[in-house]
Amino acid sequence: MTIRAFNQFFNNIGKRPALAVALSILWLLVIGGVAFFWHLGSIGLIDETEPLFAEASRQMYLTGDWITPFFNGETRFDKPALIYWCQAIAYAIFGVNEWAVRLPSAIAAMGVISLTFYTVQWQLATEDVLEQVSRPSRRWLTASLAAAILALSPEMIVWARTGVSDMLLTGCIASALFCFFLGYARGDRGQGIGDREIHNTQYPVPSSQSLIPNKWYLAFYVLIAGAILTKGPVGIVLPGLIIGAFLLYLGKLPEVMREMKVLAGVLIIAGLSLPWYLLVIWRNGWNYINSFFGYHNIERFTEVVNGHAAPWYFYFVVVLLGFAPYSVYLPLAIARVKFWQRKYWLSQERSQQFRLFAFFWFVSIFGFFTIAVTKLPSYVLPLMPAAAILVALLWGDLLKDTGKFSTSPLFWSGWVNVVFVSAIAVALFYVPQLIGTDPAAPQFRQLLQQSGLSVLGGIIWLVCAVVLAALILRRRWFPLMGVNLLGFAAFMIFVLTPALFLIDHERQLPLRELSAIAVQAHKPGEELIMVGFKKPTVVFYTQRQVNYIKMSAAAGDYIRKDATNKVQADSVLVLAQPKKFPEMGLQPSNYQSLGKSGAYQLIRVPLNQQQNPN
Question: Which residues cross the membrane (predicted)?
Fold first, then answer.
């Protein structure tokens, strides 16, 4: 389909607003459904982080204690309460299952792509009004592209399908930033485009002397409170850093702070977020303060926590792969901002500073976590919407048809795109030989090779590389992004999802099967011990406390010396790899095998047969 055909199609849609809204909703439902909800609950919980959240939420749901999170009989102060509340509410509605665990993350991701679509479309529509032109194809296509790029990116898909707090935090922060920009672009009156005012009786216009900010700023404050309840101080630090840098660059910080009615905002944020913090501190005292604020916030920024160290260039690699394959266009998209031309941006209407805002959004988060000592791939998830916006606006410039867009940089970026997806294809062909052996899934590499999934993935990306090269040679720029999107969608549907089922079958299913056996075989007062690996899924699927002992010798000593006095039953259940039993001093005559699955075996050890050397 040519650009002219696109223009005609979207011009027809633009004349029928109801149809435009309906098609937009349908588009978002399709890409969001495939990316975030398709097979959402078909795969078991993934060790080691996801079941920690799932079980803490289950305990909250069962006990009715909505203040203090617990896991395996101990307090869990890693994250604030909002993610647990959301998962517990999902349990109450849909039951305790994997789908309910991941539903808050999927909904948050859906909200982000929807607001991305809305804000991009609105911003380009205001640009058309200012320039007195009609380009419905540009704004609808660019908005659709931004939502699709964001939805069909590896980082978004992974965390939208994982029941942890990262996507909920991203949902709150990204939505808050969108609301800020929409409030900022409408000005003090809540209805203006840029610094102008459009009189519209459809909405009430607050007085400039009002103590209440416009509706978008109000939504911003509510969402910031949600971010603080999701992950603590970082929920306000990151948006504050982004907005502060943006406004300082434009010299509008005092003006916009007055406009936002910051005092009212502080009261809203405090009123929504502080009560839970006060209650949890009141109940747990310094244990909570030291654990959450000290260890999980200050130390994560200043020291290496849990061995999560990485070199300074770590997030360059994370963005390259987590935003693949569109990440190859990010340098050009960032250069397109021309952030060094401050006079140009100062002369622009507020609504036309969206690209600059996305730039500060991206670089602020990237820089903040690059400086932080503890590094994890999920930390830069909140910058993905900004990355998608920058790349989509770059493509939107192709539709502007002003003759001012030089395609020379796009030519070279396109060839980098070809090389990049070709490298992905080659890596996939050799993936079975490249991956190491996982003790929890020793047969996975062989099964992956037999499945042919890696070869299929390589073929998909190789075909993409060929098509991209052909388009570049023919100077067909706009379809390049469509090929990347279709290639990634095909890769996700035909390779990534089946591979996840394979991983689940080899790595997690054995633990679920043995957990079910443990539930059936359990005697009153009988303790369940897991030796070697600490797999929190066992706690969730057995719905009981598990004694995790890392060293085999220590586990053997515990059974011989301590378990007899501690447990009420005359036996204990032990879950471990079979090779661990001799290391514990156990011979086949010393225990009863209850089941074996994958790399694990569940046994019952009679305590009266164990000799106590003392």
Answer: 20-40, 82-100, 107-125, 140-160, 167-185, 218-250, 262-282, 312-335, 356-373, 379-398, 410-431, 451-473, 485-503
